[in-house]
Each structure stands twice: as structure tokens, then as C-alpha cells.
Amino acid sequence: MRIAQIAPLAEAVPPALYGGTERVVSWLTEELVAQGHDVTLFAAGGSKTAAKLVVGCDKGLRLQGVADHTASNLVMLEHARRLAEQFDVIHCHIDILQYPVFRDLGHKLVSTLHGRLDIPNLWPVYGAYRHMPLVSISNRQREPMPANVNWAATVYHGLPATVCPFNAKGGEYLAFLGRISREKRPDRAIEIAIRAGVRLKIAAKVDEVDRGYFDEVIRPMLDHPLIEFIGEIDESQKSAFLGGALALLFPIDWIEPFGLVMIEAMSAGTPVIAWRNGSVPEVIEEGLGGLIVDSMEMAIEAVGRAATLDRSIVRRSFERRFTVSQMAGNYVAVYEDLIGKSRSRAGRMEAA
Fold it and tell me: Hey, which CATH number is domain 173-321, 3.40.50.1820, 3.30.70.330, 3.40.50.2000, 3.40.50.300?
């Protein structure tokens, strides 16, 4: 199968530091190549891939300090459009810019929506291009959207088993990994750790849009002997950080579309203590991959319970549901369905 993967230009594929979407695109691309597909990756310069690489800009735009990525993404999409006949399927990972560019190619374009969908001013776009098939990354992610959009499937993220290798021993600290923002609730993580009397290590980036929240709310809370703020870490540091933790705290306060860090922790055998929001009940099997909580008191009690969970069972929960081969297989099924419908449509047109 000839497949184009179109990644956002915020980061290289895979990203050097933070970048969940680009990381997922990398894992998917490499697995599709390994399965024998002919894959072309449209991405930022500096990307590393076994696929054919078409560079959309010289390097990731975030690290260049570029705030608005629209122009660069549009140029890359136009390039992909000119090459469209070379592909059986074009898989886009950019939110909405592709629709007017590929409006006549809905029979071979599928888009995975990686972000939040509870933003009403975006909904008219999906209605205007309702012939374009969409993939959600959790069933919960879909719920805010209007009923008349064209869902092709829900495909959960998956990652190579070696990215966060199993750590049977774990450690004695709690981990918070990702991004400092109000909806991620690092303040909850800090309170949990202090009240439970357990060390917390925070490995997170601070975007400019969240700088005020960090300075006003989080920074004053870091002045405690149990709290250590590490900052943004890279992929090689992440596996040791997660594998060496007693548990990952995921105290979110929003409709999380997926939560990649949860399955990264589970891959390492580290249980997740997560608030019952967004995709959490779909990702975490209670008592197997971690513990789901509804209150601060439950979260504090869960710290003690997490230490008693069998880390090999946590790892098996990951292996049963969230490997990269499972993710790629589910996407191939979406591609085959798209191609089959396209051929059926072409056959009907010829018969007419």
C-alpha cells in the first residue's frame, strides 16, 4: 500500500523533546514501513525515518520560536496535494487545514484528530467537509462533536515495547510528566505528594501561554522538600524517569483526548493514578494499569495502593492493548476500508 503520512511542523518526527502527535506519527510510520508498506512522510527537517521524507520546513517550528504555523503547514499540504496521485491513502495529522486543500480527495484522505474537540467554533469546519473521514483517538474525544461528522474509527495510540522498557523494581517517587497547564493540574499532583508524604518529580515543559499560570500558581508550590521540578526532558530520559517511579500522577481536569503518557508509564510497569476525566476510563483498567480516582482523598489513598500493584500486570495491560503493531493494524484496517469504498464508488460510476 502506498501511504502518505502528513505530520504537523511544530516538531521533528520524532521530536527531540515534547511532542505527542509527532511521536505517534513516528511510531506509526516506522511500523508501517516495517510491515512492508511504501510510506512517504511529510514532516519538519531533522526528522528521522525509514520512510521517504519530504521536508516541509528546515526544522521544527516550535524550537524556532514560530508562534503561527499556518503558513508553513499550508505550503506543505499544497506540496502533498500535487503528489496525491502517487498515494493510495493520505493520512493527515493536522487538525483542519487539509480540508480545503484536499476537498476533492475525500475518497483517499483520512484525518486523525489528536486534540480537544470541545471547541464549538471549530465544529462548522467538520460539518462543511463531512464527506472527509475522521479518526478519533478515544471514544470520549468524540462526544462534544456534532452528530453529523464522518467518523471512520477510533484508534488508540500504541508505542514500541522498547520505548519505555519494563522496570520490575520501580522506585519511591511519584512522577508528573508532560506540560504545565491549568487543565493538567500539576497543583493537584503537588498537593497529593505533600499530603501523602511521598516525593514528587515534575518533568514538564512550560509554554509561553502557560507562563503566567506557572509563575503565579505552580512556582510558589515548588518550595517544598518533597517537590522537585526537573523541566522538559527528552525521550532517552523519559524511560528512566517513568520506569523509576512508584506511580505516575495524571490528575487532569479536562476532556483529555488520549493521554499518551499513561501508556508510556504502563509500558514501564509503572501504575497510573488518574482522575476520572476524558479518556482515562478507556485507557486505564482499574487495578491493572492503575487506579482511577474522583477526589483528592481517593488520590492520596491510591498512592499507598499503587505501591502494592504488581508491575508485571501493569505491563501486560499495556501489551494487550497499546502496542505499535496494534495501532498500525487498526490504521491499516481504516486504509483498506477507505480504498475498498473508493473502488466500489469507481465501479458504480463506470457502470453508470
Answer: 3.40.50.2000
All three cell numbers of 347: 465501479
Alpha helices, DSSP H, located in the chain:
20-34, 70-82, 98-101, 123-128, 139-142, 186-196, 211-213, 235-243, 260-267, 280-283, 296-306, 311-321, 324-351
**Residue 273 one-letter amino acid:** I
Q: CA distances (Å), 175 to each of 22, 28, 59, 93, 192, in order?
A: 23, 27, 30, 29, 11
Burial class (CB in 10 A: 0-12, 13-18, 19+), 294: exposed
pTM (two decimals): 0.93
Q: pLDDT digit string (tens) for 114-162?
A: 999 999 998 999 989 999 999 999 999 999 998 889 999 999 999 999 9
Domain ranges of the chain: 2-159+323-351, 173-321
Burial class of residue 117 in the structure, from the number of CB atoms within 10 Å of its CB (0-12 exposed, 13-18 middle, 19+ buried):
buried
Q: Cell numbers 527531540 correspond to what residue?
A: 16
241 contacts 218 by C-beta, under 8 angstroms: no
Q: Where are the beta strands (DSSP E) in 197-289?
A: 200-205, 227-229, 245-250, 272-275
Tens digit of each residue's pLDDT (9 = 90 or more) over 188-198: 999 999 999 99
